[in-house]
Amino acid sequence: MKVVTSEEMRKLDARTISEAGVSGVELMKRAGEGASEIIAAWAERLHPSHIRRFVFLAGKGNNGGDAYVAAAHLKKICDTEIVIYAVCGVSELKGAAAYHASLLPPEIRVEVKETFFPSDFGKGDVLIDALLGTGSSGELREPFLSWVKAANESGMPVIALDIPSGLDASTGEVFSDAIISDITITIGLPKCGLALGCGPEYCGSLRVVDIGIPKSFIEEVPSDFSMIFEDDIRYILGRVSCQSHKNSRGRVLVIGGSSNYPGAPLLCAEAALRAGAGLVTLAIPAAASRVSIISRSIIVREIPDGGSGFFNFRSVHNLTELINSHDSIVIGPGMGTETEVFEIVEMICSCGKPMVIDADALNVISLKPEILRQNRKSVITPHPGEMRRLLTGFKMEDLNDAGRISKSVELAKRTGIVTVLKGNKTVISTPEGKVWVNSSGSPALATAGSGDVLSGITGTFLSQGFKAEEAAAAAVFIHGLCGEISPYGNRGTTADDLPSLLPEAMRRISPFA
Fold first, then answer.
1. Which region holds residue 359: left if phi is over 0, alpha if psi is between -120 and 50, else beta?
2. Pairing outcome for strands 435-438 and 427-429
């Protein structure tokens, strides 16, 4: 889904009204009602003790108008108390916002407030920020600055409508302060500021509301910058053929592990299996194979290593045979960075099979990064530290102060392969300069082994014939969704939990999963 600036969004709204014949009142209705459905669904994930009231913080403009629509519709679909704290009275609103505010049911109280304090909230309040929309920029003025500070200090869950107030929708800059939201429901199309600058820090997870802007209008907006949402992944996943058999669903070979890290490749292999591969083989150094509990569906091959616990020249013959009999390769999880491992990685990277290169494989490759150019079917998945080492290896140290998107794009162009820069709002870049920023995810994924799970998912989609950028996009989004739906929350989730969450995540996205 294309990402736009605030000005581009304004023009799309205007064209939709003037050329497509959709009134501003109707656009606001679609925005508010769509947002309310997302608010209700998101709130269901909270423990009941955390949902006592929905508290809307409404501004004067169209963003405030969205709040009045959302509040009214939310009252129809849930029994929770709803209150609107407004910066001005309903009589001061104009246009579509005034119209929708006049339709509020009497059970929703509107309270105009000049000042705002954290004490105005209580346990169980969920705040919905609709103070300032995408047209706002620069320093926050009063009363908005005080309201933003009070909301941030309240300790309550916060949902932002369209953009967190105080965040520049085009640049992602924060000039004085901004709402720190747990989820942002962006209207029409995602805004650049959600992915740039401070955006990822302030916007939380993302959802989008389709308000019916004609596709032909959107296609005319020039942009190689997109964001990945559920609908994009539903299209990529498609159907699973009724004629499927284990070989047609992809054969994935995971090459990893060492005496230091025997668990990482196990996570990767289990994730590949849960993501839908027909057959998964785990190749691990014989002396590192301390497998006590593992899925009986995973084929384990102990590779000769001369007792070292690391892959070395003794491993080549066995690995070559396995590579030839599989559709995709995942290399790197837990391999270690010993000198002989480098030679194994270089050999495997030249095999010509679709590959995911991750973790220690990237660390050893940083010593000779031109190895990556040997296989244009690859996907690399560095975290920021691995990215820094790769940039240094390519003598691109001057990019260390560049933004995440710039680093990812430059490395993809330099290597000729799809680059996945992991982190909050993971960035996927192609050698042609196209960029996708992921919209899913949560802090639950900030746990050791999470990246190994992502590699396994990506390996499965590569084995099933997905294009490299589509495999990466689908894997990253589904992986992020696992973090969002984890029943163990942000603090209690471990990487061991993630593979078992994959089927549910995919079923939420696709009716064919």
1. left
2. antiparallel
Name residues whose C-beta falls within 8 Å of residue 220's C-beta, 6 or more positions apart in sequence: none
What percentage of the chain carries pLDDT values higher than 90? 90
Same domain, 149 and 267: no
Residues 403, 513: Cα–Cα separation, whole Å: 36
- The answer to whether residue 1 sits within a structural domain is no
Residue pLDDT, tens place only, 261-295:
999 999 999 999 999 999 999 999 999 877 555 67
Residue 361 CB partners (closer than 8 Å, separation 6+): 331, 332, 335, 345
Read off the pTM.
0.95
Distances (CA, A) of 422 to 195, 202, 248, 253, 473: 13, 18, 30, 22, 12
Instruction: Reduce the secondary structure of 418-432 to three states and give it as a string.
Output: EEEECCCCCEEECCC
Q: How many domains does the chain have?
A: 2
- Please tell me the distance from the alpha carbon of residue 224 to that of residue 211, in angstroms, as a whole number: 22
Task: Name every residue whose Cβ is closer than 8 Å to that of residue 93 and which is 6 or more positions away in sequence.
Answer: 60, 64, 65, 101
Contact 65, 13 (CB under 8 A): no
Predicted confidence band of residue 374 (pLDDT cuts 50, 70, 90): confident
The average confidence (pLDDT) of the chain is 94
Q: Helix or strand or coil: residue 21?
A: coil
Domain that holds residue 182: 6-222
Cβ-Cβ contacts under 8 Å for 87 (sequence gap 6 or more): 58, 59, 60, 64, 112, 113, 131, 143, 144, 147
- CATH number assigned to the domain comprising residue 135: 3.40.50.10260
Q: How far is the C-alpha of 46 from the C-alpha of 98, rounded, in Å?
A: 32
Structure tokens that stand for 412 in this block: 């993809």
Task: Return the H-helix or E-strand segment holding 178.
Answer: none
Residues sharing a CB contact under 8 Å with residue 271, sequence separation 6 or more, in sequence order: 452, 453, 454, 455, 456, 457, 460, 498, 499, 502
Place of tokens 């989730």: 493
Residues 95 and 192 placed together within one structural domain of the fold: yes
